[in-house]
Amino acid sequence: MDEDRKISFYSDAAHNYMVLECPPGLKENYQYKMLAANRIKGLLSCSGRSIDSREYLYYDISSRQSLTDLYDRRPVRSEDLNRILKDLVNVEETLTEYLLDTSHLILDPACVYLDFREQTCSFVYYPGEEQKTGPQSLFTFLADRVDGRDKQAAALIYRLCMMAERPGFRLRAKELSDLGLQMDERSEKKPEALAYEQGAVYERSRKEEIFTPAVNRQEAVFREEYTELPEESPGGRRSEGGRGPILIAAAVLAAAGILLLLADRFVKLQESYILLTRAFGGVLTAAGVILLIVQLVRGRKKQTEQIPETAETIIYKEPEPWETPGFSSSSYRPGPAPGETCLLGPDTRPAAGLYGTGTCRGEQISLAKLPCVVGKMRDYVDQVLDDSSVSRMHARFAVEGDGSISVRDLNSTNGTWLNGERLRPNESRALQQGDHLRLGRMEFIFR
Question: What is the pLDDT of residue 332?
Answer without folding.
Answer: 55
